[in-house]
């Protein structure tokens, strides 16, 4: 328990004019820990995710990250080059819509290999082999390596996006509704795959979802957001089995039982 | 005076030339960086070399000797009209001999004869942004240049090898200039890429429609991008030039009849003519000489 | 004898916000301890709060007041007030839980389901699979099922997978929520034996057993939960 947090978030707020995006959010995330942020549309969960992942500038507060050299850096005091480098090496970002995270007009192999080339790998054979390995890890047949994601199904695209993000062995991955927009059966497969990868690689992840089943299966810890505020947080099992707040109880009681 | 009086020297007004010269100076100062400039309407359509013509017009003086080539040839429509244009609006001397020229405006080729100090090679560029076909957003490509994020360029080469088994890009082959900016050498064949490396001549690139100027100063490193296991290679030809017998030059294919006969000849017409004048002959010329005897 | 689990003055109620903020008291003033090598069985009628106590101990339910102290690597940890991260760490290394139902994960093979708690503690996959195989064999789960995900198994088969998963580790405290409910006599006897073995190793066990025979066989002490129930007291 002596290891240090990977990410420290302190009083993070984002205002859109006088409207609250998210307010006074503080938490710490440790290596290997999966945090789910749940809440309905407009609750501020995506705003929070974007503020954490440097895609959106917060109004106040700080986000510090433990770099690979063990120093803590405030993300918003880094220059853009450093932030972008972090984004494509030590971090991943899985978009809800795979088209936002993939290059749709280049092959699956190049989609996975791009990050390697971006960090200076100049050996074609090695890049291709690594890409092939990753495709099989995300259960895409190796003979699809030269096909464009346009020809892939939604589930395959999402798995490709995950491979593209994980190829540089990031330590932290952000996911925005990773299973949204997929058929239920495809969702289950993807969740299972994600769960396995997160465990095997010891990834820390922040997953935004409105689906409590996704949170239950993937996350260790959860935060419930409403109107930009974190209204309840704790161990995922605890929040789901013994919700305290009125809104959380409403959310939990709204799950369809099959 | 002649009808020239109606025009300023070299067609463009002095303010415009100063503006373009400032852009050129900036481009020389930051090798490979695309400098935006206020491209003017020229009395020719886009795609006919309006960028190159504006650069040439801004640097040309009364003492200059101009050569204009298109695909290596001095006698094609585009080359002839641009040459005539400057004869008319600047009354400069023109030549077809590479060695005599002080300014060479080109589309698609770098002359075979090694360029020397004091010469300026002006390229006509259609699309200056090497990242354009992979990343359509200009805001993003600018950022990528600024932050030296060039992984995407290798994605393009990767796709080539994945599809064709080798890097199939044969022209507009991306280069890294002075170890910093990735640059599109305009639609020249990759055969000419090595000639750009540490050339003694100043190389200027003008894109009229896209409103960009960039440059490679003399003696600057120009390295073609590649992979360790798929290194950069230039095209090779099986036979020498059919007219002058030259090896290791870029050849054009010329169809001779509708029976499938063809020959390969130097794309650089001046180079070929000079060699023939010096007495070199290729296979197509040899028999006719015998017949004359 | 060491006392790895101490529960002190724990109270718990549910506030049902969706039903006019109705307050449902569950238990109050729960105090007991479990020594190592001891099996304590929670007694009392259904609905009295036995499962709730196990869930509070495991961290699935929060508590209103009181402490739940566990000896975690020689350090006393209060589950009731600990950071989720510490609770997860305690679950990984100190506190095991065998629930009534298996929460299955699609597509994961039975052998891997059982071996997972060991692997997450850093045991090699090979050794973990070996120990998982031993346990599954002992619980008479047919070998041809081991490579299948347990989602489609019968209730009894799932329960045996669940027991194997719960018993595979060397947790020093084990919570058992009716682990024998849907087992036949032969397998019940195996579980009784396994509980005996845990006791010999000095594990502290706290369980709910409705089957009287099993309860007699394993219990060192029966703790009547009625004494903690607001309703039980009233009754």
From TrEMBL, chain A:
The protein's GO terms of the molecular function aspect are:
lyase activity
Q: Which Gene3D superfamilies match?
A: P-loop containing nucleotide triphosphate hydrolases
User: What InterPro entries does the entry give?
Assistant: AAA+_ATPase, ABC_transporter-like_ATP-bd, ABC_transporter-like_CS, P-loop_NTPase, PhnK
> Does the keyword Ribosomal protein feature in the UniProt annotation?
no
- Which keywords, in A-to-Z order, does the entry hold? ATP-binding, Lyase, Nucleotide-binding
Q: Which residues form the ABC transporter domain?
A: 7-252
NCBIfam families recorded for this chain? CP_lyasePhnK (TIGR02323)
The entry assigns this protein to a family as follows: Belongs to the ABC transporter superfamily.
Q: Per its record, how is this protein called by name?
A: Phosphonate C-P lyase system protein PhnK
Gene source species: Rhizobium oryzicola
Q: Its encoding gene is what?
A: phnK
UniProtKB/TrEMBL annotation, chain B:
Q: Does the keyword Secreted apply?
A: no
Reactions catalysed: alpha-D-ribose 1-methylphosphonate 5-phosphate + AH2 + S-adenosyl-L-methionine = alpha-D-ribose 1,2-cyclic phosphate 5-phosphate + methane + 5'-deoxyadenosine + L-methionine + A + H(+)
Alphabetical keyword list = 4Fe-4S, Iron, Iron-sulfur, Lyase, Metal-binding, S-adenosyl-L-methionine
Superkingdom of origin organism: Bacteria
Assigned EC number = 4.7.1.1
Supply the InterPro entries for this chain. Answer: PhnJ
What the protein does? Catalyzes the breakage of the C-P bond in alpha-D-ribose 1-methylphosphonate 5-phosphate (PRPn) forming alpha-D-ribose.
Which family, according to the similarity comment? Answer: Belongs to the PhnJ family.
User: Which protein are we looking at?
Assistant: Alpha-D-ribose 1-methylphosphonate 5-phosphate C-P lyase
Automatic annotation (TrEMBL), chain C:
The entry's keywords: ATP-binding, Lyase, Nucleotide-binding
Query: Pfam families, from UniProt?
Result: ABC_tran
Q: Which PROSITE patterns match?
A: ABC_TRANSPORTER_1, ABC_TRANSPORTER_2
Keyword flag ATP-binding = yes
Q: Where is the ABC transporter domain?
A: 5-235
Q: Which GO terms describe its molecular function?
A: lyase activity
- Kindly give the Gene3D superfamilies that the UniProt entry links to this protein: P-loop containing nucleotide triphosphate hydrolases
Q: Which family does it belong to?
A: Belongs to the ABC transporter superfamily.
Name under which the protein is recorded:
Phosphonate C-P lyase system protein PhnL
Q: Which organism is it from?
A: Rhizobium oryzicola
